Amino acid sequence: MAPRPVDAVIAAARGFLGDRLTTNAAMREQHAKGEDSSTPTLPDAVAFVETTEEASRLVALCHQHEVPVVAFGAGTSLEGHVNPVRGGISLDLSRMTAILEVNEQDMDCLIEPGVTRQQLNEHLRDKGMFFPVDPGSHCTIGGMVATRASGTNAVRYGTIRENTLGLEVVLADGRVIATGGRTRKAANGYDLTRLFIGSEGTLGIVTKVRLRLHGIPEAMSSAVVQFATLQGAVESVIQVMQMGIPVARIELLDDDMMAASIAYSKLEGYAPATTLFLKFHGSEAGVAEQAAMVEAITAEHGGTGFRWATDAAERNRLWKARHDSYWAGCAAKPGHKALTTDVCVPISRLAEALVGAKEEAKALGHFTCIVGHVGDGNFHQMVLYDPADPQGLERAWDMDRRIVERGLALGGTCSGEHGIGLGKREFLEREHGAEALAVMRGLKQTLDPKGILNPGKMFRN
Amino acid sequence: MAPRPVDAVIAAARGFLGDRLTTNAAMREQHAKGEDSSTPTLPDAVAFVETTEEASRLVALCHQHEVPVVAFGAGTSLEGHVNPVRGGISLDLSRMTAILEVNEQDMDCLIEPGVTRQQLNEHLRDKGMFFPVDPGSHCTIGGMVATRASGTNAVRYGTIRENTLGLEVVLADGRVIATGGRTRKAANGYDLTRLFIGSEGTLGIVTKVRLRLHGIPEAMSSAVVQFATLQGAVESVIQVMQMGIPVARIELLDDDMMAASIAYSKLEGYAPATTLFLKFHGSEAGVAEQAAMVEAITAEHGGTGFRWATDAAERNRLWKARHDSYWAGCAAKPGHKALTTDVCVPISRLAEALVGAKEEAKALGHFTCIVGHVGDGNFHQMVLYDPADPQGLERAWDMDRRIVERGLALGGTCSGEHGIGLGKREFLEREHGAEALAVMRGLKQTLDPKGILNPGKMFRN
Description:
Helix content of chain A: 25-40%
Structural class of chain A: alpha+beta
Strand order of the largest sheet of chain A: 15-12-14-13-17-18-16
Number of helices of chain A: 16
Number of domains of chain A: 4
Distance between the termini of chain A: 28 Å
Largest interface: A-B, 90 and 91 residues
Oligomer: homodimer
CATH architecture of the largest domain in chain A: 2-Layer Sandwich
């Protein structure tokens, strides 16, 4: 058999990576997909790089031999990003975990891409600062940059897009560039930082990230309020946003998700009804004032049983339940798995999107439950399916598509925060139009002319 | 004489623009430069387009005949952006002033690029919303997009980058694309919106802008506090930022600028000393609390005479003085003109940057005065020069370069908000490095292969 191009890469990369370049079957299995529902594909090899120089040399080799290279962090992608669908090298950055600089006066830091937000926040705690972007999972910050991640705090603090000052990126041919800088703003040329953020490993490999940090607020409190109708909850959210109340989080659980969470997380004393979880950051007086304003708004829209928790233990219990809602949803139907949608719509259309998708799912015999970053108009509708049913996953995908179609018809997007990856490629042209997609393809062609960077993702061919 | 390519464009464009395509000398003069100090260049013609279709047809003609096309809004650029250095067509978008949509529930709007922020805020006032990005001048929002503008409110509300949801852009060959969308966030492909923001008319012509809006706060107040030292003022700013006090504005005037403003704007009762102007947005209790916290912080750092103005007339008088500081600075030396720098540094280096630049200017015999968006580390040092002195402008440019060099050495950028244009091209490679600059050039080549869009700007050739 003729030697494959990837064999030349493997042989050469062993020279500087040693046994950190592995073709071990178990390791390849672990890098065959993320937490998504895609069909696993084994990479030809997994490379655990520890420095920018190693990443650069490896990518240059892949470029020379035209071998695909797929960046891998914690493997928490929900859209197939890390699945090496065309084989090649899985470039694992999870060992690049150094926190290189923390600048307390400027409230920024420079980190390697394998750092997780938990690790970073652990490190920052005694400095009175935190990094707010919180997608919930134990993802790496490199992965968050790649997918333009956001999560629960985005309504107040923005997404990773707004909280990244600059990047170090290995280009497709192995050259290394620095983008952005240390200043809070700049009008100094094309915004390469934002070009790489959300590019899902298709334009370059991120090897350093400079992040904005925030001061830990003097006071934090949480609140929970329940509604007889989804409409009432959504109207409350709209008014909270319009009044400019700077809520740190405003999350919605629909009745089915709340029922699942009560069972899974032992949330006694709550009804299985549509629920808003809120978090307030500010001064002592400020959070009290915010809570009072939100209580008044929710009461106007039929909210009942408003509870305000300043006690840290109670607050943590509530937010742990919110964070565990994915597992609660799965547990609601034993033996089932979940496909998670990620539609985001203008907030004025949110009630319509939620109610419509929920009713359609019911009519088609699906059990779904919803959790939403509603301040941003983003919601995840979990479609449960039985993996033992040969049509189960396909039917769930069909339902997922219907939810997306409804979102698009309401002026929304197929992805608020999980990205395009494999699963949402069909919607990219629909959303942006053929000409804008051609511009995206042109950028891809310019930055990765041989098409080695995460091929098969974002674009359909 | 052989017909020039531009003549073919002019003849064809007259067909659909009529006398809105003009070669009138006075009109060409008006489009020969912005408010910058560049040497004027006459465009061959000025085209007042009124629709996207007209802009598209005109750009397509320029593409066909390889004629330069330079977008023009209000002509307030401070870096030579609108100077048609290679002739061609000045594409004037200032008549595209329609406010096409305002969505109160979603707090967004869709506007044409010739709308000014004053016009927009006038329109929004009775809807309880406002658009916060405020560069001070009567610029158009299209121009703000092109230069990645920011201004006094950026410390709290972000720059135009954070407040733009999407764009309509005419590409170099006349094709029209829409970028972004109506949702507050999205992870749906490459961030074309951010690619065009700050591209200074070199990648496409913006013909529509969708903006995020904000609720008018319940309460607003202003404060002024003075310092014996620049260091004390800057240390105060750093601490305000670290504590996360959500000041809407925090602006610094140095002693010379304050003296000039006292004289020009009749600010009785203030000392000609380093001064911070602050603005607070929030609830009644919130702004009082913010002001009290800031007063305590500034007192620790030697701030004296803290005055809190909730009265709208007094507040407006103060902020008018701040807005007029450019004219106050010019008036400080009758007959002089000013070159304005735009350095931005990490805030921890701000005192060093300011004190160093001020002392160097004095040592070299320049009169300079400083106004700064100090919460962002951005400051404008006005270098006054005598236009009658044949070396005056050149000496001012030399001083400008020294201020930039110092800023770069402190980890800063040559431009916080005015852009690169003509005046800052020499620094672009210095800031980003040859490889990153090559990526920028690659993007330019991809999107404008014939180099017709604002040629000679941003890059030196």
